[in-house]
Amino acid sequence: MLKILLITPNLNIPGGVTEFNKMLLHYSSLKIISFNLWGAGKKQNKVTKFFALILNIFRFTAIVIVSKANIVHLGPSLGSNSIKRDGIMCVIAKFFNKKVYLHWHGWNPDNEFLLEPPKLRFIQKTIFRANHITFLSSHFQSLFISKGYKNSSNVGNTFVDDNLLKDFKLSSNSKSTVNILFLSTISKNKGIYLALDVFSSLADDHNITFTIAGSGPELENIKMQVPKNLQNKIFFLGHVSGAKKVEAFNEADIYIFPSYYEGMPTSVLEAMAFGLPVVCSKVGAIPDFFENSKMGFIHDKNDIEAFKNSIKKLINDEALRNSIGRFNHKFATEYFLASKAVARIDADYKQLLIHGC
């Protein structure tokens, strides 16, 4: 019987990886056991990180032995702690003759030094032993192969929960006020300050509002940055999920996402599925699928003038917003629904067990 051991952060902690794993558990037709990492997703000092690593390694070894899983599913990001932890777990899993399926998530270009000597040696001795790696971007895949990875790999995607769209109907209702949505972690690397600057520069001349959904380290600071004359036009929702997330997307007309680095941001896929035009930065896996002008507009990170011009264009052209929205909804529901994407992952699991990829 095919059994998968899924290594995951605590599923109660908000984040892209946990949402991905929850949908994988929900939509998979296979038997998947989740193993929650202790301390993942929380701020820790060096001592706490060290003890968390040791504890997780011992716990992982025990569950590998007793679970009788055929496949171990790891989900690292390009960061020192994640690489170290998942690299060691990969070696342990291989020692116990388990197949290792590795699904890459976050990718910070500033950490690509980890793929250069002398750091690369550790990755080659550990991560490269995985039987199969799914990347979120063709660039990530090519870079790994250029560094000597020889086993099976492909380019996959994150996905949109089908349940979010169960009552959604695409409409083209005319509205006097255009609502711009930012839905993500409220942090510098997600581009929240650029998004606020773009809105502030356009608010005096256009009938627009700005909805900020999410929590994060910059939330209180960004609230203090809101100009007094715009406080009645900017709304903070905090972290949203389920019905509140659906409402946030339904009330929006444009989605802005000026992130500095990404894997494959689920919020962009969700915005598309809800029929929103997207204005985003050219980072991570987004350029692999995003069609400029057809899906919205894609720009170099930090190019505030480009973001401003694209948002302005969409504000002033309702027909353009609607046509892009229709295209995005059709594209996202065809390629990014969780039920379809998880079925592809299930097929990868089966291939891995039968052929070792």
UniProtKB/TrEMBL annotation:
Keywords: Transferase
A single MF term (Gene Ontology): glycosyltransferase activity
Residue ranges of domain Glycosyl transferase family in the record: 178-327
Keyword Lyase included in the entry's annotation: no
Protein name: Glycosyltransferase family 1 protein
Organism encoding this protein: Maribellus luteus
